[in-house]
Design brief:
By secondary structure, the protein is of the alpha/beta class. Helix content is 44%, strand content 13%. It has one domain. The longest helix is centred in the middle third of the chain and has 22 residues. The structure holds zinc ion.
Length: 268
C-alpha cells in the first residue's frame, strides 16, 4: 500500500477563503462547458430585481460551490465532484444535527452552548489584500465578528437586490454559523478536506497529498445556510464582493450560467 503523507501547505488557488473567514481574493472563471447549462436566457441586468432573479437562477447550489473552488476544480490527483458533493452534504447534515439538538437557538447563544466565545470588533477589516468578515481561533475557541465588514456586505446585498434576504442581522447570524462550523470541525484531521485530499506528488511508493481549503469553506457555507434557513448561500455575497462592479458581477453570472447542470466537474 502506498504510504501517504499529508502536506499542510496552503493551496496555490487564490480563490479560497480560510477557516478564519477571510473574504475571497479572486476567483478564476470555470469555463468551457458546452452542454446543457443554467440560465441561458439571462435577463437584462438593469434593476435590483433583475439582479436578484439572475443571482437566484445562476448562483444557486451547486454553482456557487464550484465557483468558490475555482482553479482547484481543474487540478489533477483528486475527485473534485466527489469532494464538492461530500462537502455540501456534510455541511447540511451537520447543521440539521445541531438544529435537532438546539432548535430555535440564535447563533450567538449556540456558539456559547458549544463552548465558543463571541467577540465583536470595529477594527478595520482589511489585512493586506484581505477583508475579514469573521474569524475563528482554534487556540482560544473565540469567534470574532468584524462589524464594518458586515455592514459593507449589507450594502452590497442591497445593491444586488438581495437586501431583504441578507440583512445585517441575517449576515451576522450566517457569519457566526460559518465559524461555528469551523469550531465543530476540530481537529483539522477530521475536516472534510482531509478526507478528500488531492495527490500532489507521487514518488515511488510515496504519495504526497494536500488539502484544498476551499472544500472546508464550501462545507462551512452550506452549514451556515442550513442552520440559518437561508434560501441562498451566504457564499454568494463573497462571490459578489469580488465582482462588486455591475460588469464584474454580470461576468460572474455568465460564468455560473456555463457550469454544467448538477455541478459536474467543469471541463477545460
Ligand atoms: Zn471559513
Amino acid at each position: 500500500m502506498a504510504k501517504q503523507q499529508e502536506l499542510l501547505q496552503p493551496s496555490r488557488c487564490n480563490a479560497t477563503s480560510s477557516r478564519d473567514g477571510y473574504l475571497y481574493e479572486s476567483c478564476r472563471s470555470c469555463s468551457g462547458n458546452k452542454g446543457q447549462t443554467l440560465g441561458e436566457d439571462l435577463p437584462s441586468l438593469r434593476s435590483p430585481a433583475d439582479w436578484q432573479r439572475a443571482i437566484a437562477q445562476t448562483l444557486a447550489e451547486p454553482a456557487w460551490a464550484w465557483l468558490l473552488l475555482g482553479d482547484a476544480a481543474h487540478r489533477p490527483g483528486w475527485d473534485a465532484p466527489a469532494a464538492v458533493q461530500a462537502a455540501l452534504q456534510r455541511g447540511r447534515d451537520l447543521a440539521r444535527q445541531v438544529r435537532s439538538s438546539f432548535p430555535s437557538v440564535r447563533a450567538a447563544d449556540l456558539a456559547l452552548a458549544l463552548g465558543a466565545h463571541v467577540a465583536r470588533s470595529d477594527e478595520p477589516p482589511e489585512v493586506g489584500w484581505r477583508q475579514r468578515r469573521s474569524q475563528y481561533s482554534p487556540r482560544t475557541c473565540e469567534i470574532t465578528l468584524y462589524t464594518r465588514s458586515l455592514l459593507a456586505l449589507t450594502e452590497l446585498a442591497v445593491r444586488f437586490g438581495l437586501g431583504e434576504l441578507f440583512t445585517t442581522a441575517a449576515l451576522e447570524e450566517a457569519a457566526l454559523a460559518h465559524e461555528i462550523y469551523h469550531h465543530l470541525e476540530r481537529p483539522p484531521q477530521s475536516a472534510i478536506s482531509a478526507l478528500h485530499r488531492r495527490a500532489w506528488l507521487r514518488v515511488g511508493p510515496i504519495t504526497l497529498a494536500l488539502r484544498e481549503p476551499a472544500i472546508d469553506e464550501i462545507s462551512a457555507h452550506r452549514f451556515a445556510q442550513e442552520l440559518c434557513g437561508l434560501v441562498l448561500s451566504p457564499a454568494v455575497l463573497d462571490l459578489l464582493y469580488l465582482h462588486s462592479s455591475p460588469q464584474a458581477a454580470e461576468s460572474l453570472i455568465q460564468q455560473a450560467a456555463n457550469l454544467p447542470v448538477g455541478g459536474e466537474k467543469p471541463k477545460e
